[in-house]
Design a protein that fits this description.
The chain is an alpha/beta fold and about 325 residues long. It contains seven helices and 16 strands. The protein is globular and about 55 Å long.
């Protein structure tokens, strides 16, 4: 599985840390204006997702997402590109398949999957720094209010819990195409099962996807990294009678979160398409089928399909965690 996680303790200047930031429960369903605003924000993100695909085909990496000195942003998410924070980020910073470089201030956490983090001497981070599939480099003088945890040698077996395993075959391979068609058929069967058993809870999770897609993305990314680190800990340090069952539970939880979250994403996407493009209202199962067909078609696009499905998976997992599988109640009751 690779080397163990690298963790550094609490400190003032340089690496240090408080506990891992908790995943908070989302607010109630937003009103129509908030939903329209979320849709307007989501459309540019989907458009920007096409930029890494074209750049990849040309052999070039897309330009970094930059927060210049003197600029202020809220939650910053980079997908398939690096993130440079020279100004101030008032919330969290996340990168998927990209690195993060900070010379300014980040109020929240920094979470990176398949990339690295560089903190300049002027960097100020109020929360934790988590990296899976990369390293953390902090220059002298950098200040981190939380913990720094990196797992540079994380196995792809864990990372591909997001979007299918990489089996080393070409995109046009009959085996790959057949596997994708079989997976789409399995998703269709799963739609029937989930809507028959827990349709109301699925719709409630889908409301989290619609109202707060960016927050759901970050919660999903944080949740997946937490599960990966937990699984790696069990596989490396808690082997045997105790470790194996716990490892199995972690993997099952990750898979259930992915399945539940993706069904909610299918419905949220299909419902938006039916009401805004087709100008009709379909039953929830039919709307979810439309979303599955659209994302299923995207899945066959090389590289871009994997990127879109990974992003959708993280949004779905985040919505499932935030809504507690559509129940809208705290995960733990405090006495």
């Amino acid at each position: 599985m690779g080397g163990g996680p690298v963790e550094e303790g609490r400190g003032g200047e340089g690496p240090g840390g408080a506990g891992v930031g908790s995943i908070q429960q989302t607010l109630g369903i937003g009103h129509n204006l908030r939903y329209i605003a979320a849709v307007k924000l989501l459309i540019p993100i989907l458009f920007l997702l096409a930029i890494p695909a074209s750049a990849q085909s040309a052999g070039r990496r897309p330009a970094p997402l930059r927060i210049e000195a003197g600029s202020v942003a809220h939650q910053v998410v980079g997908v398939g590109q690096d993130v440079v924070v020279a100004g101030e980020a008032l919330a969290d910073v996340a990168a998927l398949d990209g690195s993060v470089e900070v010379s300014g201030r980040v109020t929240g956490d920094i979470v990176v999957l398949r990339g690295g983090v560089h903190l300049a001497s002027t960097a100020r981070v109020g929360g934790d720094v988590f990296v899976v599939g990369g390293t953390i480099r902090a220059d002298h003088g950098a200040q981190i209010g939380g913990r720094m945890v990196s797992y540079p040698n994380a196995s792809n077996a864990w990372l591909t819990l997001l979007e299918g395993p990489s089996i080393g075959l070409g995109f046009a391979s009959r085996l790959v195409l057949g596997a994708k068609l079989a997976l789409l058929a399995a998703w269709a069967a799963l739609l029937l099962l989930f809507f028959a058993a827990s349709g109301r809870q699925v719709l409630e999770t889908a409301s989290g996807v619609r109202c707060e897609p960016f927050r759901s993305f970050f919660v999903g990314l944080t949740g997946i990294i937490s599960l990966v680190l937990t699984g790696l800990f069990f596989s490396a340090f808690a082997r045997g009678i105790v470790g194996v069952p716990l490892l199995v539970l972690v993997v099952l939880l990750a898979m259930v979160l992915k399945l539940w979250g993706m069904v909610a994403v299918f419905y949220a996407l299909g419902d938006w398409i039916s009401r805004h493009l087709l100008r009709r209202r379909f039953r929830p199962l039919n709307a979810a089928t439309i979303g599955l067909l659209v994302l299923g078609a995207v899945k066959f696009l090389p590289w871009f399909g994997v990127l879109v499905w990974t992003t959708a998976t993280l949004i779905g997992i985040g919505a499932a965690l935030s809504t507690k599988f559509g129940r809208r109640e705290p995960w733990f009751e405090l006495a």
